[in-house]
Write a structure and sequence with these properties.
Blueprint: E1 9-10, H1 12-19, H2 23-31, E2 38-39, E3 45-48, H3 49-64, E4 65-81, E5 87-103, E6 107-111, H4 118-126, E7 133-138, H5 147-151, E8 154-158, H6 170-180, H7 185-198, H8 214-226, E9 232-236, H9 244-261, E10 264-268, H10 272-278, E11 281-286, E12 289-294, H11 296-303, E13 306-313, E14 326-331, E15 334-340, H12 345-355, E16 358-364, H13 368-375, E17 384-387
Parallel strand pairs: 6-10, 6-11, 8-9, 9-10
Antiparallel strand pairs: 1-3, 2-3, 4-5, 4-7, 5-17, 11-12, 13-15, 13-16, 14-15
Length: about 400
């Protein structure tokens, strides 16, 4: 274990094992000046006990951060036809120097318009894509270098794609996951029973996936992603296309998962209600840049977005007066009132109910793409340059 000539001095493979990290990760720390090994007469790296202890502390600190991105970039090269036989190569910066940290057990919304760079970020976080620059760690692991090791510690759900086997019964997909992730039998049975109960899947286990409704399949996908007890869960549009009851069931399950198991969750969605009900923090990406990181109320304030209260009265009346709301449309007994998204709807509803003959009402959330478009209408677009 120790070097042949000096007790308590280790070569790189042993030092990495003692510190609980991959040797390549240790080399990265070395190149960044976080650790400086000694050299043997044959130029072999030698790490002391103090070096190993320092590496352990670094690894513990990194692991405590569910995710850690520092100046991460992703540049794609595309070709465009500019003439009959001429093509021009261009570089498109899909992700542009993004930096953020997500603590273990935190649930964070990651939102933005289509093409903003959300999916590219998740693909880098899962190891599918390699960053063009910057530093990225998930649960203390470099995703692009240790993808197989990371796969056992993360779960991924894509709302518009399924990880389930289309023609097989749902239970067979779970049995395949059992083998692929090498989940111990007792742990697999315990997790399966818990997920089947919480997600109400008992009657669906023997049904082929192709015969499941969208809501049923989504619950099945979430269960498959959690069978191996991942530390980090990526959710890409988990409630897209679901009815109100299915959405509520999925949200309640995710809330319990985060509270009881401490699972770190990164949620990408266009549904602001997902964010409001599940996340205390939201990040906005636009044109590959991180434009906002903070509470949802702060996003509404920055974007000056508005919600809409649709009020049905018993009879046709003059426009309702309830500042700070303002009437933007009237059709017979129905009126539409716009009010700042940061304001509480409950106070406004209580005031209208007390002063007007109310029949029904509903609150419509602002469209996230409209919020971002208003926030960043004057911001420069995605960086793109020609390559000579």
């Amino acid at each position: 274990m120790a070097d042949d000539t000096t007790r308590g001095v280790y070569m790189i493979s042993v030092a990495a094992e003692l510190a609980g990290m991959h040797p390549q990760t240790l080399r990265i720390y070395e190149t960044r000046g976080l650790i400086t090994p000694k050299r043997s007469p044959k130029n072999t790296r030698l790490y002391s006990e103090d070096d190993v202890e320092r590496l352990r502390r670094i690894q513990v600190l990194t692991t405590e951060l569910g995710m850690n991105l520092a100046g991460v970039e992703k540049v794609f090269e595309v070709r465009r036809k500019t003439g009959f036989l001429k093509r021009e190569r261009r570089q498109v910066r899909a992700v542009d120097s993004i930096s953020f940290s997500v603590a273990r057990g935190e649930m964070v919304g990651y939102i933005g318009p289509n093409g903003a760079g959300k999916s590219t970020t998740i693909k880098m976080l899962t190891g599918i894509l390699t960053p063009s620059g910057g530093r990225l760690r998930v649960a203390g692991i470099d995703p692009s270098r240790e993808r197989m090791r990371l796969a056992h510690r993360i779960g991924v759900v894509f709302g518009q794609r399924t990880t389930l086997w289309w023609d097989l019964p749902l239970i067979d997909s779970y049995r395949l996951a059992h083998r692929m992730y090498r989940i111990p039998d007792a742990r697999y049975r315990e997790n399966l029973d818990r997920l089947v109960e919480l997600l109400d899947l008992a009657e669906l286990l023997d049904v082929p996936v192709r015969q499941l409704s969208l809501g049923q399949r989504m619950r099945g996908d979430i269960a498959a992603a959690l069978l191996h007890d991942p530390e980090v869960l990526y959710l890409d549009e988990p409630t897209i296309g679901l009815d109100v009851i299915s959405k509520a069931r999925v949200r309640e399950f995710l809330r319990e998962l985060n509270t009881e198991r401490g699972t770190t969750v990164l949620l990408t969605t266009h549904d602001l209600q997902d964010i409001e009900q599940l996340c205390s923090r939201v990040m906005v990406i636009d044109h590959g840049r991180l434009m906002y990181d903070g509470p949802l109320a702060g996003l509404h304030e920055v974007g000056e977005s508005e919600r809409t209260l649709v009020v049905d009265l018993e009879r046709e009346l003059p426009p309702i007066e309830a500042p700070p709301a303002r009437v933007v449309k009237v059709e017979g007994p129905r009126q539409w009132l716009a009010f700042p998204a940061a304001e509480s709807a409950a106070v406004l509803v209580a005031r209208i109910a007390a002063e007007y003959p109310l029949v029904d009402l509903s609150v419509r959330e602002p469209d996230i793409e409209a919020v971002i478009a208003k926030m960043y209408a004057e911001k420069p677009g995605r960086t793109e340059r020609a390559i000579s």
